[in-house]
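User: Hi! I'm working on a homework problem where we have to compare a predicted structure to a textbook description. Could you give me the structure for the chain below?
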Amino acid sequence: MAVTYIATRVRGKNIQALSSEIDGRTVLVKGQSFKIASVRDEDLVEGELVRDPGQFVAELKKSGLKADVLTFFQRPPDVKPRFPYAVEWENYAVIPITTFDAWWDKLPQEARKNTRRAAKRGVVVKAVPFDDELARGIHKICNETPVRQGKPFWHYGKDFEAIKTEHATYVERSEFIGAYFENELIGFIKWVYVDKLAYLLAILALNSHQDKRPMNALLAKGVEVCAQKGVGHMVYGNYVYGKKKDSSLVEFKRRNGFEQIDFPRYYLPLTMKGRLFTTLKLYRGMVGLLPAPMLKLLLKVRGYLTETAERPVAAQDA
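Assistant: Happy to help. Predicted structure tokens:
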């Protein structure tokens, strides 16, 4: 249970975090004022994250990791709280999968129309291996624009090797689907199989080809592949991020058959500072503590400032 530094990524940037092996899990400690311990890549770890919290905490304290709080969650569909600790409800955007037709029949007409439009406009979607050719296409897509969804895009400006390395994680459990137009990669989707879930790590397309609706075609192919392989749920991050309930991303997920499923995340204080952290619900962060109207206004301001900052000078003067 030696303590060591390990590389991990936070918001698209590589950092070094203290870690130790606890009950077969790699546990990281992050934070400055409050040290928060969690399982590394917790969304992608197979099996129950923490089988016996009491024993896990005992081993964590012996490990030498200086943590104030341990946090972990119950993976859906196991969503009924089983442990007597402080709980914060989080959510996934989930497509429950039985058959492709069952998903397709529930879609609104607009989503089905957009999927058909992709095929009519020459978009071909297919499963592809992860190799240099695919990585070069992904690199081009990542470097098309520095701003996506109103904020700086994490992968913009990275070189080929960095993009290849970052998208090669968990490749042995991954599936890649490419969207092609005239043999050019214009979009891709990557997910990792986690037990009976397919967890989306990336879905991205060239803005210059959005009129062909490659994102809709990618999701449709993804559901088809998952249904064929008996995957029970496709997960696309959060359905709602904090209090941001009316974003374009939420609407995109809703139109494509994603539903919100809530699950419990636990916070176990390990020190007096940890007790303060959980009592005051500081795990919600500043964004989580702001009133929804103020948050909405601040997000609009951020989006405007980001778009303005990235706009070419000539365009600003026009």
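For your comparison, note the following. Residues 292-310 form the longest helix (19 residues). The two ends are 61 Å apart (CA to CA). Good luck with the assignment!
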